[in-house]
Amino acid sequence: MNNALRGHIVLQYVNQTELQFSDIQGGSFPDRKTCIFYLSLRNLVANPQYLSSCTFNIEFERLILICYVDTPDVNSIEAVNKFCCLNAISLILAWDNAELGRYVETITVLLKETGIGECNNLDFLTITFSTLSEITCLNKLDVSTFINIFPDLLIVLNTSVLGFASVPGIGMRKAQHITSLVQNAFH
């Protein structure tokens, strides 16, 4: 844990792991490869540059942001989600301090006891295949074809309905569905 977090209310809910404090930038460090940050949405509204400043020079393989939702502002959640997506940061939303503490505790225990943190076989193709497979109208053959035709996510995001429809096995209905998924904002 970062020394700045001594006495933080969240720490009273972290009971199953030993707390060690240091001066390293970040929130807590369940292993050598992972850094967990905490963010209050209210703090983000008051200080919009906080998120980018606290993650600026962090050299961990995995960054996890646990965001305490203490304001009903949907735009703040959307901004945090977008920031996390663009910077490869895992985002977890917590609705109170107890839940936030339990997430920290659970992540720490899982990383130390199960070896889940040692999974590093995920390359770009694996992640892309997994992500595209979540689209209900696409089967595995469609996903394989997509990966061969669109080697870059930016190309997928800028492709029109007709561009998707020209892919073998993708008709106009699937193309319209895919276009609506990749080009419309999240709500």
Automatic annotation (TrEMBL):
Record-annotated ERCC1-like central domain positions: 2-107
Pfam families reported for this sequence: Rad10 (PF03834)
Keyword Isomerase recorded: no
Localization per record: Nucleus
Keywords per UniProt: DNA damage, DNA repair, DNA-binding, Nucleus
GO cellular component: ERCC4-ERCC1 complex; nucleotide-excision repair factor 1 complex
Molecular-function annotations in GO: damaged DNA binding; single-stranded DNA binding
Family statement drawn from the similarity comment of this UniProt entry: Belongs to the ERCC1/RAD10/SWI10 family.
Annotated protein name in UniProt: ERCC1-like central domain-containing protein
Organism encoding this protein: Bathycoccus prasinos
